[in-house]
Amino acid sequence: MKDEQIVGAALAEVLPKTDKYWFQQSHLLRLNLLLLVPLLSSSVSGYDGRVLQPYLTEYQLTYFANPTGVKLGDVNAAQSIGSVLALPIVGYLADRFGRKPVLLSGIILIIMATIVQSTSVNLPMFIVSRLLVGFGGMFVVHPSPMLIAELAYPTHRGKYTSAFWTTYYLGAILSSWATFGCQDYQTEWAWRIPSILQAGFPLVQLCFFAWVPESPRWLIASERTAEAAAILARYHSGAQDPAEGHTPLVRREVAEIVQTIQQEKKAETTGLMALVATPGNRKRTLIAVCVGAFAQWNGIGVVSYYLTLVLNTVGITDTFTQTLVNGLLQIFNFGAALGAAFLVDRLGRRTLFLWSRAGMLASYIVWTACSAVNTETGSKPAGIVVVACLFTFYFHYDNSPTLYPNHPHIRTTIITTIATTITTYFTISAAHPYATFGLARQFRCPRFIQTIYIAGIQTSGLDYILYSSKGAVRR
Prior knowledge:
With 475 residues, the chain is mainly α. The chain is built from 25 helices and no strands.
């Protein structure tokens, strides 16, 4: 694609003209490699979010006294509760002290939580460790997409930010295959080893953290414009000497950041009321709430947190097959999400989002019907179709990469996260646990209603309120 189609004509005219690919330019190669550090934050989240699912095998449930119903839901929801507890302060800390210190504190908290979790001796201790994981995970996940958006090269920003949640599945892959490798262990190490590996991605981030630059936008907001310009000059223009790196691109970027910050300071309405002060802000807030809530109220909780028990309902009960399906599903998810991230600049996020919801609807309808047939008649072909629908459902779920906004919309980012975590808690703590323990028939009606919800609200509703941001760049 042409630069004008990606970043707009105004910014494209000051981009350096070159025939080289980005990996042939040392400064861009260095920048993109360093951005892998915050990009791995979603891998941390992916491992943390998926590591519990394999615990729901027979041995792990027995070790923790067979939690059922709401208690089982609370085990899964503890991470979301920890995330909600961190939300009131993480945004303020990222603005007050910078993106890097908050990210570093989150990495350290995850490592500490891993120690607690891997040494747990009872269910309360395990739940507390999950609370710490959720709390620290928010310190990792919240500043990372902002740091990426504020550091990335203009023509790379859309792909990089859209790929943020793609690497979630790298963590899920490590988690699922670690569990697959430990499936034959009939001791507590069957779950302690995956718990220990939870610190893997944070340790990788910690090793390279010192070389990651701070956000130029935060530096300018902190009246450290010279430092911000030097970072942009080095990583966007390739200048080792900041005095020689003030190219038209760097000057334009600094000017845009300064102008945006000044406009924010002059705004009459501040605080949370700014979210509903104007028609534009009200619509942006509505989108933030809908995207956050719909991220969980679409059936994903069934697959994400109770895959083992879903497979049990269609006759797949042996641990080997269950962990194998889980591992293959995560590899499939990573490929689908990565492909969608590269389609963002071509198709736009709105198109991908609506395509995703329509595909999820179709998959869920077939899944519900075949699950009913399998339950009533024991039909093996129907059970196979249910497993296939897990993959098609996830394929379309993965096709909706969400661009995490940078600082001008930090409050809407928080609103989205709050909506996601709250709906996650109620979905996995209140609804799904009952459905997976012998109540499939009673749950089938609500599940079917949920498919209608996806069709009527998510597909049609989002078609009305979403607008395309393709080609738009805002700092």
